């Protein structure tokens, strides 16, 4: 069982940009035995996917292996001819991509794509392979395994497609599968079932795997050993349990420590206090498609209300109703006890100023043609009427507030900043209006964990200083735990449950909240096993949601 | 299946509606002519009787709306009115205006056939060549081959049709007398002879259309090759040929159909200049001649025919790409 | 029949040489991946390219043959090869100049510039120069009728030329060189003005439609749909018929109408693009942020949208200019465009076209119409090269 399957030594990869080759992976070693699962983790830009693909002997267009060796079962993949590599790919090494919806060919049925590799590599006949496909679908607990293969990709949901893709990778019973962030695009409740089925099938066929992800908790469930990458460099590698309990390097320790930030629970607000924002019985629709049904909640001064839910639950639509971008069909929104006009075009400058917004993607939220000074200066001038030196002074003060050196950043363009810095500029622009209330729409979900941590701390500091109220939209319960005072759980456009954070995180809950909470992976390597035992194999993910 | 039929029915209805509005636009534009048609055509020196004859013949004493309706009604039945040039001639010789000679339809008929022949020959040469070249350029993108074809096609697109036509005449008719430089086509010609005379104008059009079509095919294929499912197919260890034929082509169908239709539509415009250069007796040459002598009914009719062909081609492309879309063919 | 047989033999020969080429490559380089994974088609392609190059060089040599029939036959190919080499060298020198002179930004621009684009920039600059200073550069006036008609280009008296008229004179004795130079001013100037007008109309409506949406967008978009359902050259010809009736004998007025007509027809294409670009920007969060701030329409369009739309609009301006330029040239060629006595390239081609038939024995005579047509092609090729490079640059980041 200790036979060496994959041996990578000193792997260096270059990527082409601006007509020059830049090194993006600087000498990585990998060792994988038969049946072993290696977790490859790192932040964006760490080179995880590039390394994963290179261990199949494959580089994307605009990349090349500049040095090092990749040996698969004694075969040198770097220097192998195209024909030799083609013979291995799909048959002995398979790949599961991040987005199954984009990686299945829209023009063919699932089963036809499934049987393609075995038939082309002459492993199985068409009919045998089809029968085997149905068997695999059943093992992966896909609904209607007999029939689902005869559908086209667009007729199947995301979580099911991801499992169908795992089945497709298994079609030739390969020795090695590369999983490239297979669950990143999925909701937490769907993620569970995909994780469980991937783990089961990999164990059953004793397949070696490289599991690429940025999510520590996920990799803790899946891998035998973990390797941490940072900007194309290897940080450290160890057995999963050892890595979790006793990381050696500072960078790894900081990654592990991220989830420790937690604000104390503030006491409940006096019931007679006038809330800053009060959403009252809001019902809204896009055209004729209803999205919100009778949504009500309050946000009080100096408090953070987290609105939680999976994609399509109506979180962002609620924000659009509050800002007036989508006037509700019924109900209204009150600010400081006064009803706001439904349409933002009918609101006064004062009303617009009081409610500001910070967006998920700082890239699209900042006009790329304007300097930082102009971006923050505009609301200062627009609302406060400051110009010239006064305006500049105010902008510099705001830059200091968000912990960026004014003289350094004033004249820069957004493209010259990192993701976290851009998000800080978004915060400064919101602050420039001197609002009472800020909507934070998934502000940390596009950021790496360490950077997100910094943003959360900054937001908490500003709240304490300026007595701001936040509406915090997120799908990430870890973020909720760290920053929220109150929580509103939404599902299918309805509020399922709301209350103080500590109450929400202690049982008993509404069944959906319970499902949502228990689906968030934890850093404990036994978490998934325990959860499956608790829920029973047939009662996870979609199945559980449907039973509600 | 019901939904796809509904979408196609909608497109068809939209096409007919567009054609109707276009006919209104053309008719209105022509009615913007200053003063009176008859006066405008015959000029100051015309006799009162001649002007009156034409005026009555054209129904100029009627209201514009009723004139439009009768024109449209005639057009639908294939009667496109009478040519001014012929009417003019007829009124001078004193014979009855509106006899067989003067009808626009009779003038356009054979020429329309010639133009379709020219366009057909061009399409037969251009479509296979450009799609093959486009796919090759996409596969070997950024190679010397790709760069060379890029420069050549850009140059060919940039050149006015008459420049390309004269270059071809220079090399293939004057310096190396292989093909005739004048395309005098007449009735009762043998097919081979006709083909030979059509070849040079067809080659000129091919140069222009191939360049456009090839570049668009290349762009469509490159766009497609960047999609994750193509990477997936390559990672399954499939042969490059299979990746292209089985995974790229079924999805490339819609864009390629679009490219072909768009360029056949482009042919319609290109045909005008090329027919004039080669004195090819097609509808484009007739159109230009009529424009010069302000033969309004002929101009109107040609314009309508060109627009109809253009709309028809775009409609065909639209419907074919709907039919080739698996999402619409197999709804959830 | 012989030619077809010869071509077939040539193809078989090239295929054989291609196979040998790949085989030798594999042997000599010790089976390097480049030759090992080379498909036969690629090998054939290399041989084909080599044959074309050899043929071009051979034609160049033949064009300097002492036998006049052979020399005449290869005159044009020889000149074409000469022109190509001269332009390539000029573009190359221009690029070196650009890399060492100017500000940091322009130097950086020139460093990443392919030869085709530097050729394009150089050519556009030359045309602009000639167009602006036509009055000074041209030896004679554009309408001036000089002593002799039909003087042969080349300036060689033995061949019927005259050194005073290096490119000869036309049928009524106007200097062709002067008319070519004035043509730059007239044809290019009118096309440029038309494009600017088309952009003003189409761009304004497009951005308004994208920002405001609603009924304005609906009305303008549907109107554009209808206008675009008529092929543009056909529509232009139809409207020119009517314009000609309106203008009567006033030729200047007709040119003005032509500018208006083509600008309106082309503005539909600009509208489509501006609207599409605008819509892509309008969905950005920073536009939403500006709207929620309470900014007015003017600020949204001029400060938020327009600065982000310059790159695609500039590329479109180049393409539109080419299109307008070719349309005007075609109209003039057909006799309904720019009216005499203004010198114009399209009209010149039409007037001089018959001389092409003399190419076999007097190639200089035949070159006059080709020069005018070539002048049109050269400018559009140049603009297209630059636009192609710009588009490649802006999309290249994704690849």
Describe the fold and architecture.
The complex is a heterotrimer of chains A (548), B (332) and C (399). Chain A is built from 24 helices and 20 strands. Chain A has 548 residues and is an alpha/beta fold. In chain A, the strands form 4 sheets. Chain A has a 6-stranded mixed sheet with strand order 6-7-8-3-9-10, sandwiched between helices. In chain A, strands 16-17-18-13-19-20 form a 6-stranded mixed sheet, sandwiched between helices. Chain B is mostly helical. Chain B is 78% helix and 0% strand. In chain B, helix 7 crosses helix 9. The longest helix of chain B has 39 residues. With 399 residues, chain C is an all-alpha fold. In chain C, helix 1 packs across helix 3, helix 3 crosses helix 5 and helix 5 packs antiparallel against helix 6. The longest helix of chain C is centred in the last third of the chain and has 38 residues. The mean pLDDT of chain C is 85. At the B-C interface, helix 1, helix 7, helix 8, helix 11 and helix 12 of B face helix 3, helix 10, helix 11, helix 14 and helix 16 of C.
Radius of gyration of chain C: 26 Å
Oligomeric composition of the shown chains: heterotrimer
Poorly predicted ranges of chain A = none
Task: State the share of residues found in helices of chain A, binned by percent.
Answer: 25-40%
The number of distinct helices of chain A, counting runs of at least 4 residues, comes to: 24
The profile of the biggest β sheet of chain C is: none
Per the principal axes of the C-alpha atoms, what is the gross shape of chain C?
A: globular
Determine the fraction of residues in helical runs of chain C and give it as a percent range.
over 70%
The termini of chain A sit apart by 44 Å
Which structural class should the secondary elements of chain A be placed in?
Answer: alpha/beta
Strand content of chain C: under 5%
The mean pLDDT of chain C is: 85
Order of helices and strands of chain C: HHHHHHHHHHHHHHHH
Count of individual beta strands of chain C: 0
